[in-house]
Amino acid sequence: MKKAAVFIFFMSIAAFLFSQNSPAEFYQSAILNDGQKDYAAALHDLDNALSVRPDFDSAFCLQGFINYKLGEYKLALKQMDKAIRLNPNYVDALNGRGILKAQLNDYCGAIKDFNRVITIKPFHAKAYYNRAQAKARLDDFKAAVSDLDKAIELDGRYVNAYYSRAYWKDMSGDYKGAIEDYRKTLEIDPNYREAYVGMATSHYQHDNKTEACEVLKKASEKGSVMAEELIEKLCN
């Protein structure tokens, strides 16, 4: 009897403490756990928040982002859908759903979501960047470059946009423009190893082997194993 009484006592304490936590507190705890990469704890916090407040759109959105990190794309997509049904103009959820649709190869659906983000928030550089990637996957390289132009116009230090624009410029036949963007990428971030390899590849494909090898050597100095392997194959 004593053990049963002790168990009931502690269970009642736990229930009392749970009742004292608001949905906002559970949500904040989820953010902290997500930051520590304790995704199981974060999702548990969000379940608790939603059990108290089933219309908590931000909790559904954060669930979606966490499950995206865990590779649970279809589940994450459903959670983003719930957030957007509750708040049709929820920019973060729309952008997140667009990323998930692209991950699931629904590039047209992704573009529609990014279009909505841009309509709601015209200065959203990441939405232009994300839309560019979706357009490029549909082989519309010029449209992708145009979106990246806008992303860079909005954020002149958007290093990933410069790198991506370099790649898609090269794919669309603008070799000189690609090299310029690779150089700009490295000006912003001298340790961007992928940009060195990208520039070297572009040089090599356009019969500039000497320039390609010089760039690969720089990449190797930055610790790129791929660059070292390419030097062995192409430059010796």
User: Main sheet?
Assistant: none
Low-confidence stretches are 12-18
Quaternary state of the chains: single chain
Please tell me what the overall shape is. elongated
Order of helices and strands: HHHHHHHHHHHHHH
Helix/strand-derived category reads: mainly alpha
**Which range best describes the helical content: under 10%, 10-25%, 25-40%, 40-55%, 55-70% or over 70%?**
over 70%
Distance between the termini: 82 Å
Count of DSSP-assigned helices: 14
Strand content: under 5%
Summed over residues and divided by their number, the pLDDT gives a mean of 92
Give the radius of gyration. 24 Å
Number of strands: 0
3D architecture notes:
This protein has 236 residues and is mainly alpha-helical. It has helices at 2-20, 23-35, 39-52, 57-69, 73-86, 91-103, 107-120, 125-137, 141-154, 159-171, 175-188, 193-205, 209-221, 225-234. Helix 3 (39-52) packs antiparallel against helix 4 (57-69), helix 4 packs antiparallel against helix 5 (73-86) and helix 9 (141-154) packs antiparallel against helix 10 (159-171). The longest helix is centred in the first third of the chain and has 19 residues, at 2-20. The chain is elongated and about 65 Å long. It starts with a helix and ends with a helix. 40% of the residues are buried.
